[in-house]
Each structure stands twice: as C-alpha cells, then as structure tokens.
Design brief:
Length: about 290
C-alpha cells in the first residue's frame, strides 16, 4: 500500500497511455502528464487512490503474505524432489499466491482503472464506494433478460477482465518475487553482499526491470478490457487480435516507460519496507 501510494501518479499516466488507441497520437508520459495537469488539475494524478489502496491490501497482502507459506507447502508436497533453493519451488509458490490474490482483488482493480480513465465530460464517480455501486448497478441492468447465470450481473461486471488480471498477477509476481528472491540468494551465496538495505535495494532494482518487461503486454490487455464500457472486445482473444490488427505489436508495450518507472518504484519500496517490517516484528528476512 505504501509503494502504491507513492507511485499513484505514475500508475494513472500509464493507464491513460494504455487506453489510447490512436497510434499516431503523441503518447509519451510527459505529454500525457502535462495534458492531465492542464485540463484536469494536479489533483487528477491521485485519481483512484482509495481503490488502489484497497486493491493492494488484498492483492499484495495475499501474494506477499502467503508466498513463503506456499513455498513450505509445495516443498512438503514435493517430498524432497524440489530443493529449498530451487527456482521451480519459488515459481510454484509465487504462482499460487498471486493467482488467489489477483483474482480476489479484481473488483478493486477494475474500479481503480475506471476511476483513473479519462472522461471528456468529467468523471462519473464521486468516490470509490459510488464507483462500486455504479458498476454493480450497470452490470445488473445489463444482465436483465440476458439469460440465467450462476453469478449476479453486478458481480460479473466487477469481475470483467479477471482472466488477464490473474494472468498478469501471476506473470508479474513470479518475475518480481522470484527474481528478487533469486538475486538476493545468489548475491549472498557468492559473498558479494550481506543481508541489509543495500542488498534489498539491488535485488529489488533487478526485480522491477524483470517484472516490467514480462507484465506490460498483459497489462495493456487488462486495462483495455476493464475500461471497455461499450463491450467492443469479445473477450481476451478478441482484444489481442483487435490491438494487433489496428495498432500493431508495439502497442502491447504502450506505457512501458511509465510501467517501468512505476513498477521499479513499487518494487523497491515494497521489498525495502517489507524487509524492514519483517525485521521489526522479529521475522527472518526473505
């Protein structure tokens, strides 16, 4: 939550970049940021802050909080076939933890994206609670007469884009948490660095770059689907095909500079604060 709060302005600029479908339009983060400040005011850079806090409380709370629990569980299930230091064990644990976290946090993630999007006539949401209620109501209204489903229409609306959200969560978390864990382990084992803030900073810098490269394409698809009010995309596959057809493969890396700036910042703050909190409560370092 601390990391997300620090990086919220970078996050909203990244979302605006990823929502732009015009390939010829200037889309650098400086252009987008200046446009927002001029037309919507500096406070617009903190849009979606409350939803972002809720999302991180659920998503990162679960993926970081349960990572080592699942490492122990998978190790026991493997019955010694996986070593404690193996990359496979780390990937399995991070995948399970992030799948649960990202799936449960999808409604808050969707509300965050909707609150951060640009609306020519002004945002339709007064606050996070109003956004949740509005999206639920729209989903319930759209579901009337559309057949039966095990899931209420309002809940389906809040879970729109859950597939790419979960995939992105798994890709981001496995590349972020595993690379941080692995880089730390290698640097300590080779005697390059010892446990402490310099090691945490170094490992988190590498982790921020790795997870930015792997997660940006899925993030673009996730943001487009979550903000698809008119349902122009018929699912994940159709969204990918449409982007490829109309904007080309480079479109999947729209907002990469801001994604890296944001994820790099988030990763550094997350792991440094995480390790400090562990130390404060007498828990061994990751």
């Amino acid at each position: 939550m601390c990391a997300s709060g620090v990086s919220n302005p970078l996050d909203i600029i990244k979302v605006r970049q990823q929502l732009r479908t015009q390939s010829a339009r200037a889309n650098s983060f400086w252009v987008v940021g200046i446009e927002m400040a001029r037309s919507e005011g500096l406070r617009s850079l903190m849009n979606g802050f409350s939803a972002s806090m809720l999302r991180e409380f659920v998503y990162s709370g679960i993926r970081l909080g349960s990572y080592e629990y699942f490492k122990d569980a998978v190790y026991q299930i493997s019955d010694g076939r996986l070593s404690r230091d193996s990359l496979g064990l780390k990937v399995a644990a991070a995948s399970i933890a992030s799948t649960i976290g990202s799936a449960l946090a999808n409604p808050a993630d969707l509300v965050k994206v909707r609150m951060q999007a640009y609306y020519p006539s002004g945002t339709p949401y007064r606050n996070m609670r109003h956004a949740f209620a509005t999206i639920w109501k729209q989903g319930s209204t759209a579901a009337n007469g559309s057949g039966t489903s095990f899931m209420p229409g309002g809940l389906r609306a809040l879970y729109r884009g859950v597939s790419p959200t979960t995939v992105r969560g798994v890709i981001l978390s496995t590349s972020q948490i595993c690379s941080y864990d692995q880089v730390k382990q290698v640097l300590k084992r080779r005697g390059v660095m010892e446990e402490g803030i310099p090691l945490h900073l170094t490992a988190s810098m590498f982790a921020g770059l790795f997870c930015s490269i792997t997660s940006n394409p899925v993030d673009v698809v996730k943001v487009r689907l979550m903000n698809d009010h008119s349902h122009q995309y018929n699912g994940v596959t159709d969204c990918i095909k449409t982007i490829l057809r109309s904007e080309g493969p480079v479109a999947f890396y729209k907002g990469f500079g801001m994604c890296w700036a944001r994820l790099g910042t988030v990763t550094i703050v997350t792991f440094v604060v995480f390790e400090r909190i562990r130390l404060l409560f007498g828990v061994a370092a990751m």
